[in-house]
Amino acid sequence: MKNRLRILRAEFALTQADLAERLGVSRQAVNALETEKHAPSLDLAFRISAIFNQSVEDIFENPHHPSIAEKRPENN
Asked: Which of 30, 61, 70, 75 has its CA 20 to 30 A from that of 17?
């Protein structure tokens, strides 16, 4: 699942270990999220959004929701 986790973590000057500690997960779990090898549970996504004070939708991309570009009719 595409996300902005690495960018936000850098903006907040947090290491993976720092973020993991705040979330109550392992550093490896944070790495798996950042490298898109794992999708967060709903609970974890909400905890992440609270730490960064952003909505879940602003951090994680919904893979089942078409992008705005895909919704636009083609200009012919």
From this structure: 61
